[in-house]
Amino acid sequence: MPPRSVDDGLRAALAIRAEHPEIGILVLSQYLGDAYAAKLTAEPANGPRRGGAGYLLKDRVGRVVDFMQSLDVIAGGGIVIDPKVIGHLMSSGRPHALDMLSEREHEVLGRMATGESNAHIAAGLHVTEGAVVKHIGNIFAKLGLQAQDGNRRVLAVLTYLQAARPEDP
User: Fold this and answer.
1) Among residues 102, 5, 25, 96, which one has the least CA distance to residue 58?
2) Which of 37, 86, 107, 146 is most exposed, with minimal Cβ within 10 Å?
3) pTM of the complete model beyond 0.70
4) Buried/exposed code over 17-30 (b: 16+ C-beta within 10 A; e: otherwise)
5) What pLDDT tens digit does each residue of the chain (169 aa) get?
6) How far is CA 30 from CA 1, 50, 61, 111, 162, in A?
7) What distances in angstroms separate CA 136 from CA 7, 38, 75, 165, one per listed residue?
8) Residue 35 and residue 57: Cα distance in Å, rounded?
9) Which is nearest to 29 in space by CA: 75, 68, 85?
């Protein structure tokens, strides 16, 4: 979603939810955003929720009957969370920063972790180098890595590697 094409839509949904808890909101996302799903469906601090809320993965839209049922639940003030998101929440115990990444961003970060250059990543994924640069920018933004943090590429790879080996300190 423009202008930054990162998590602007999710942030907008949370802001609307905070200001107007009576409005029903359904977020359609391409990635398992456990933290966003939890925030979106949490009870507002300023009283009981009146509007429904939902967080579905975009592939759910293709199943029209499921999608329409989700809209009915939200319109009635209920909560809908994609079963894949719930399964991920239950299996991981708590959300991780990498959960915010799309599947393609995970692929790019995985290739970054092997030391591939942007050009090599682009060739391997059959995309342009510009697309890889955009994905890397999205990864930095979703992981909360700012330019002043140092070498963001190294920090992103360290985050990736630490998640792959959670038993390491």
Assistant:
1) 102
2) 146
3) no
4) beeebeebbbbbbe
5) 555 556 677 788 888 888 888 888 888 887 766 667 777 777 655 555 568 888 888 877 777 888 888 888 888 888 888 877 776 665 655 556 787 888 899 899 999 988 889 999 999 999 999 999 999 999 988 888 877 666 788 888 888 887 765 443 3
6) 12, 27, 11, 20, 23
7) 14, 25, 37, 22
8) 14
9) 85
